[in-house]
Structure formats: structure tokens, C-alpha cells
Amino acid sequence: MPTIDTAQPSDQTPRPMLNGVYLLLLGITAGIMLGPWGLGWLAPQCYDAWFSDPVKLNVQLQDIENTRRKLAMTGVTEIALVEYDIQRQAEVDTLNEQLALTTQWTHWMNALLLASIMVLTVMNLVSRGRRLFCRLHFGAHLLLSAWLALLLAQPHMIGSIPRWGLAAALGLCVVVCLIPLGKCPANQTEKTDGH
Description:
This protein is mainly α. Helices cover about 80% and strands about 0% of the residues. The protein contains nine helices and no strands.
């Protein structure tokens, strides 16, 4: 007579897989709160200082340069041009600092994405039942969550990503989230097979 296994699930159920999904949801929430819908609405000056649109910054710098050229073509004196440069220098310095910050955000995001891909690659080389696999899985999702938060905080960056790049990033997120959910650690499958 076959027996039915009524044992309680062990501590090695695939909960760590769900932790990755929760981390990605946390990243989405953080991105919304840091983005124009959260921080941009509550403190627009702070948001503009941290997550400026580089296209708008370059347009502002170009406007300052065009105004200077127009002044030079109208025949104003050199002293007036120097005074204009002195008046605008603080604004130009601020715009250049914000451009440097947007470049740093881009470098951080690239590093986060590359690190998560590397961790996922190492994770695929480790057997699923090991504790290292769960730690790598958690780490990869943590890195992807941080990348996702920074991406959503700067919607102008989504427009600058090529369509194939955006599709690849979304596909990577879907694969990382959904495929491991249906798989159990090796220890649990051995217990269910052996009754």
C-alpha cells in the first residue's frame, strides 16, 4: 500500500527565489519614489540637482553660448562680453557639475548591470541545492533592483536606451524572475522521491 508523504515542508523550500522578486518590486518602488512622481513632485529642486536630463542641460549651455555669440555680433565692447561671462559663469559651472553627475549615474548603472550579469553567470555554474546559489541569486537580484531603481528615477534614460537594449534588459529581468520560481532545491526533490 503506497504511503502519502504528509511531512511538513522543510526549511529549504524555494523561498529565496521569491526574495528576488520582492527585491525587484522594491527596486521599482524605490525608483518611483526617487523619480519625478515622488521626489520630483515633493522636492523638484532636489530632484533636478540629482537626476538632471543631460539633453536639457546641453540645451541650456548652448543657449548661453548662442546668447554670447549674438552679443559679440551686435558689436558690444569687450568689457560687456567679459561682464556677461562673469555673470553666467556660476550658471555654467552648475550645469557642468550636473552633467558630470549624470555621467556618474550612467557609469554606476552600467556597473550594476554588468555585475548582476556576472553574478548570474556564476550562479548558473553552482548547483541549485547549495547555499551559495541562494546567496548569488539574492545578490544578482539586489544589483538588478538597484539598477532598476536608478533607471526608473531617471525616465529620460529610458528614452535614450536603444529599443533592443530595453527589450534585452526587460527579457533578462523576466528570465531572472520567473524561471527559478518553478524549480526546487535539489535536497527537496530527493526527499520527495525517497518518501
